Fold these 2 entries.
Entry 1:
Amino acid sequence: MAATSHRRSLRSRRTLVVSAAVLAAGAGAGVFVMNANAGALDLYHQTLAAKDGWASSGTGTTGGAKADAAHTFTVSTRAQLVKALGSASDTTPRIIKIKGTIDANTDDTGKKLTCASYAAGTGYSLSAYLKAYDPATYGRSKLPSGTQEKARAAAQAKQSKNIVFKVPANTTIVGVPGTQAGLTGGSLQAKNVDNVIVRNLAFAATEDCFPQWDPTDGSTGNWNSAYDSVTLRGATHVWADHNTFTDGPHFDNANPKYYGREYQIHDGALDITNGSDLVTVERNQFTNHDKTMLIGSSDTDSVGKLRVSIHHNVWKGIVQRAPLARIGQIHIYNNVYDTTSLNGYAAKYSIDSRAKAQVVAEHNYFKLPSGAKVAKLLSGDGTGSVAGGGNLVNGTATDVVAAYNAASSKKLKTTVNWKPALTAGLETSAKNLLTGLVTTAGAGALK
Ligand code: CA
Ligand code: CA
């Protein structure tokens, strides 16, 4: 059983009993005072607990908890969400409650927008694009340029304007329990802002209608897409809690191939880059995705930042980057990694430590299908560290780093330059996580 959730549910049960008793006694106004004293704030006003990972550092993460009534919104459409978010530079605390599922690919009147809607008027067509940049005639030495690339960029800009939601500082965005709250086809972006909470939301189908061909990416070229479901760039004090991420209903195995390469329409699920820092990612479900979590966008992203705690998440049906960690001090504990193939998503590796990343990975539960190799749980470039013990593989205590290093030339370093201190809720046994997190992690688990 997940300790913190358990405590929370106990606490709300106690509060209910108290409230009922007080109500029965007819002491109406006292109820709220007693709730506040008991610490049982509603979902919308809860803040990150003390010492709960890197986001609790310093000023902590309170999101929009101090929002006044004028900055507390309940939204059910894309247009309402845009209005509630306001200006990206307005730091007034705000709470945004998402009720039900918002489809980002809708216009201001709620009408459904398709890829064709965005392409309309730009001159872009996939067939013309494919003809223009076919390596057989265009070659492989330079990036696409010219009429069709301009048209693609114009169409992509139209989609981006519609589906990217810029989150200002001091904001809590939270799904209303019992409403299947979430965002479909959208990308929440926290850029150069501090103090953001994202909770209880199901993120699905974040898709780029206009992937770009890059013939210079690797030896065979790649199709690159632009949108993460949640993207943190230069963001600090971020708490991502109890969300679910999935590509569904369009899985990667339905992607066509052009020029012999997968036409990838998905980017990351939750990427933490460009000097982002002090992030706690807890009790989320990451499912049905390839490149799931990038920490640091390049080997020179930002020294001294990229400090992230990742705990009590379920990673299931993930191909890679769970996470891919660069540079920062990253604590990965009490997660469940189920590496069984799911909907065509076959695991390449789970955790990659590179560019001198200082990863502590402890008390995680790895579920491997029969025949899978423990060495394939990790990856690295020979400069990254992974320290920490207490990891279980199919219930058995296993030194996953030793297994990886025994099979790899680019070995992981086993010491780190820090010791995690913000570890409230850390469980020193991973054995109950597999059953415990199934019902307590992800969107919809909070009541
Ligand atoms: Ca990309
Ligand atoms: Ca990304």
Entry 2:
Amino acid sequence: MTVAVLVGMQWGDEGKGKIVDLLSEDMDVIARYQGGANAGHTVVINGEQFILHLVPSGILRENKVCVIGPGVVVDPTALLDEIEELENAGIDVKGRLLISPRAHCILPVNKEVDRANDSRKSQKKIGTTGKGIGPTYSDKSNRIGIPLHYFFDRERLESAVAALIERKNVIIEHQLGGNTTTQKEVVDYIMEVAPRIKPYVGDTKQILWDAIASGKEILCEGAQGTMLDIDHGTYPFVTSSNTVSGGACTGLGIPPKNINRIIGIVKAYTTRVGEGPFPTELKDETGALLQGEGAEFGATTGRPRRCGWFDAVVARYAVDVNGIDEIVLTKLDVLDKLEKIKVCVAYEVDGKRLDRLTDNVAVLEHAKPIYEEMDGWNSKIAGATDYSELPEKAKKYIDFLEKISGAKIKIVSTGPDRNATIIR
Ligand code: IMP
């Protein structure tokens, strides 16, 4: 029996979609525990590309059960569109996808509030995806949110929507200057989507508990990355959920004692979308090369991703905060054309060396990376499927990252396709 958690070690976009799909082959249940349609998990199978935002990437494997836990925020429109796209591609979703009735609903008004919030002059711009994530988690914490089970209890829904709209409209009218909404508008929207969502709503915790009791294999799929965690990331430049491995327990209702495998996923360099500190960012032609070779554009928003060298301070921190046992290293082939490769091993802050991430993450805004430089392999490894195919210099790079991060690198990804993978 395995209950594994796959967690991003950087600022998201580490390539979780492909790896979840790969690992799903040996899994029975794949479960999303946080976030919403802000995620964009890209999977390429025999040249065909799928981008999943909410549905776990395990859906692409036949007969796998996929669940969306109470810790996720669900945009019904985005979910229904995604299901339709999957069905159109010949992937059977009915009977294999189950969403917790406790998952909160992202209302259209919260997408407007998200965008308006992020353009306020008095507040630091976060560069959110505009998908309504932050406002929906805020409503949940404020106890004015709409969990999916309200959809099927008209009386409770109407009173909850009235309370929510009262608060929302004050903010919209007096602070944000956007369009206010009415109780009827919101209830009508929910009544329209509810019957189509209903077949997918069910007891996800029981499915997971039964799977644990009968010794099945479960993979908990994290979205975003460690550095975007609301408690452990680069606050305030974070998303609004617990992206770290611990989030799998609260976001799904799995007891901590049942989690027995934690897989970190890290890119061979670093990227970040949106605002916030990024010590190893490259604003030169090497950064442009990484962006081009790595096709570093957001799968959800299309925004160009900021690119930079591998940051081992971040990787070590991710190993510690998540309890990572093994690492998947992705996009190694993106470095194929480089003569020299740098790895940040520590920071210099106000003349002092800093080996570990501090809790005062504002320090990262002026931290100078201390680099170790290595020779690039400067040859094509893209598509390699066996460790022996790699040049010595690529093996040396992998060994160095492994040593400095503090966990074994067990899988190396050398291209977007399912097959471009090395198992060590
Ligand atoms: P939000 O999650 O839309 O509230 O955005 C908060 C921050 O997280 C922004 O910097 C986003 O760019 C970032 N973010 C959210 N989802 C992802 C993702 O899936 N990959 C990378 N960054 C993300």
